[in-house]
């Protein structure tokens, strides 16, 4: 069991090679660079190395908390989680790890996850909830994606493109930068996002120092399969929408989008995502992963969905009991509300009302 920065370059390269052979899309959250940056802002981050016949056959990044309670590395912000294992090293196969045995070796009483991929047989038996992660497929090019939108919802695409033209006429020439390096633009995005969290009654992620430091460090990360990418939509010299995410050679993981509320009538966030899809396709990136969670803009933009899972592996003991008490009641309450659209709508309005009160 190692601190992430203790991994040698040979081990990191082996991690990358194992990930390249996975049937899953190459999501940058699953690369060693993301775990390494987490390790620099979260002192409990660790990597378990799985050996087979004396050779490394896999890696499990995680964070260790009190009483041995574990969590997927970056839990709460990472949109893709799990172990990186040699193909064929599945439960029941000769030499394959068992999830609870792995916890025992890592001195963990539990290991919580909330975005495990479908191609993770080690963890799927312990899943409690299944969610849809929305995706945009641009593997056949941006024009093919536009054709999909036009066939499915012609009014949506026509209206959004019309708003983009109106933005250019009324505010200033529209300009898009796929990989903006200006630190001021990142600060603007984070300020917009913090205000959005407060306005909608949700916890401000950027009020947590480790998340702010994580984003700033990832913005400086330039690895082939995990590169911080800040995309900005300008009208004239003014930024009106921005997004920060991570990209590999084939996947753009969409993470923190926000826009200037003063430009809301032009739907700059939707325009931004269309331009991101266009730029990603031009770069050879075939998939934009919008992540799990219901949102109207995701429904409008997506071409499909991928399942992700939430749950926990537990071993008998005080740590497992604390995990259950700390997470299960809230998870079950969220599931109850989510399964009842009218109740979910009331909950959303209540959150927004609370946000408005806090903003006064």
From TrEMBL:
Residues 158-298 form the BioF2-like acetyltransferase domain. Pfam families: Acetyltransf_6. This is GNAT family N-acetyltransferase. It comes from Streptomyces ziwulingensis.
